[in-house]
Amino acid sequence: MTTTLIEFQIAADPPQRLDKALFRDAPAQAELSRTYLTRLILAGAVRINLAPQNNPKAKVVEGAQVQIELPCAAELNLTPENIPLRVVYEDDALIVIDKPAGMVVHPAPGSPTGTLVHALLHHCAARIANRYAGACFVVSLRR
Question: In this structure, which topology does domain 3-71 adopt according to CATH?
Answer without folding.
Answer: 3.10.290
